Amino acid sequence: MQRTFPADFLWGVATSAHQVEGDNNNSDLWLEEQLPGSPFVEPSGDALDHWNRYAADIELLATLGLKSYRFSIEWARVEPAHGQWSQAALDHYRDVCDQCIRHGMEPVITLHHFTSPQWLMRFGGWRGAETPDLFACYVERVMGHLGDRVRYAVTMNECNIAAVLHDYVQQLIAKGDKVAIERLSNNRWKSLAAKHCGVDESLYCSFIGAVDAKGVETVMAAHRAARTVIRRVAPHVKVGFSLSLQQAQSRAGGEKFALDAWQRKFRQWLPLIADDDFVSTQTYTRTIYDIGGKYHVPAGSGTTQMKFEFAPEALAAVLRTIASETDKPILVSENGAAVDDDQLRIEFIGRALAGVHQCVAEGIKVLGYFYWSAFDNFEWYFGYAMQFGVIAVDRRTMERKPKGSAIYLGNIARTGVLPDEAQVQAQPDGGQELLDLLNSERG
Ligand code: BGC
Fold first, then answer.
1. Which domains are assigned to the chain?
2. What spacing in Å lies between the alpha carbon of 333 and ligand 1's midpoint?
3. Relative to the CA of 206, which of 234, 341, 342, 416 has its CA 20 to 30 Å away?
4. For 228, left (φ over 0), alpha (ψ -120 to 50), or beta?
5. 344 Cα: distance to centroid of ligand 1 (angstroms)
6. Separation between Cα atoms, residue 284 and residue 358, nearest integer Å
7. Is 433 known to be catalytic?
């Protein structure tokens, strides 16, 4: 039987400003890239020059058959100095929306994707008491300028990223990965970054570094303030924020680690989600906990360039777990694999979507699917070596080359139908699903 998706399903690819635009030199992470001892293996530099090439890039996405483009607005460009607004940047982003609309694509905007203006550190960054209001002020400018062009806004990308990153570094420490430990857990660059911003090191706190309770509280307050502004300035816009959520399983003794991770990465955000229009997940892999709290890739599973387990079925497991906690519609705002062999990416997309289709058939409300990413791009700490994109970019000439996976995803988007060979596969055993644990907890 033909597997068809709902007609209004959002089919797209995603990017973020810092990873593709280039020269985002007023932002905090740009600064961190330049410093001795930087956790970034290389600087973002020109990135993909998407700032200048966005019109041709969007046309290419539309030609491939894609129906939607998720991109982010850069706060450090819109407000390069505190209280100074760049009309040119606001006009730029409005035109990005217009280019999408002109090509029949739905623009989905993210108002914050990891990077913040350097001046925010004078206010204590993402631990600062005034930060939620400063963020809301920026959101008001943006939505006042392009709110009439969009129907969906993600206020902040992966509000739980600091916890995810913290766990990731713990995982590397447990594995004894000396190079990564030295690069990711040294703080030498931090005092230099603070000095450059003209503040004491205690005030320097980027979004991805906001791991403590104060950081979480600030991010939550910023989302609330942004949502209030959006509801006032552009009431037709559906609002949510995204979370990084991996499928979790546990082996005997690991149950408490799986439950604790879910509490920190999802449950503590539920009261915020309760007043949103949708919940947004970004899912890449599966995590298996055991008695030592360790993370495993089971024998028989491959890994991606990120050293994540190649686990396309993880997405459906996450969708089912979220749906057991809330009735809100779910947006898959990112899902993807960094692999050299594009056939593997095609397999990943097909298997992930076969799982999504089962979830839709079970009655779970899924708004859409955004593959990460449109292009091979600047993968933060890992630089340009990671190949997530359905489109390759030659960074010397900036030439774009769509891969087979771009054609594959574009055809699914165009028809709304899943090819027959896209089938869910049995996962190598990891143990008990988080959903079973939650269900037994609920009695
Ligand atoms: C982020 C992206 C990132 C991707 C792949 C997500 O955490 O939103 O910016 O490139 O994962 O690691």
1. 3-442 (3.20.20.80)
2. 10
3. 234
4. alpha
5. 19
6. 18
7. no
